[in-house]
Amino acid sequence: AALKPQIGEGINLGVAHRAPMAEFRAEIYWLNLSDEIGYVDNPGFSNDGNFNIEKSERVGINLVSDLRLSSSLDLEFSASYVDAKATSGAQADKRIPLVSAKSMGASATKKFTNNWEAQFSWKYESDKVLGSDYNNDGSRIGSQTKSDLSIEKKFNDTKVRLGINNIFDQTLYSYGVRG
Fold it and tell me: What b-and-e string marks burial along 28-43, b requiring 16 or more CB atoms within 10 Å of the CB?
């Protein structure tokens, strides 16, 4: 069968508030898709592995706060939740692959002088269904955390950053398929 175009409609509602030493943002959203295009890594599958998911939906919330604790120290926190699933057809009530339902992050930025600053950041993602596992019956990519550290020097209009990503040497996966 020929692939159909993916068509979606959605609603976003957000609010932001800024105070002298803080900013808060929140957003809720709903996205309804018809004929979402999925991919199954299966030799012999028609359409070179692409297929249409009859109907799918994503409902979520994003929260972000930026706090200025002093003129030299900023903190940022974020959290997201998304329920991403097929709502009808052969995959009804199954999670959409490669979408983490929960994620959180935090960072701290310390300014030492007008030209020097350092940043530590941390990110967490919950488990997710392997790519191409639209039946949700295989293994999952486990939850994971990552921490980064950097230092930055500003030279007039130019910034130079030196960083160490994944400082705790965690094994990380952003993609995986059933094989």
Answer: eeebbbbbbebbbeee
What is the C-alpha separation between 141 and 13, in angstroms, rounded?
A: 31
| Number of neighbours of residue 112 by Cβ within 10 angstroms | 11
Which residue has 């297929």 as its token pair?
A: 51
Tell me how far apart the alpha carbons of residues 104 and 125 are, in angstroms, rounded to a whole number.
7
Q: Which residue type is seen at 128? A: K
* Tens digit of each residue's pLDDT (9 = 90 or more) over 40-87: 766 555 556 788 899 999 999 999 999 999 999 999 999 999 999 999
Q: Where are the beta strands (DSSP E) in the chain?
A: 7-19, 22-39, 50-70, 73-88, 102-111, 116-125, 128-129, 140-141, 144-155, 158-164
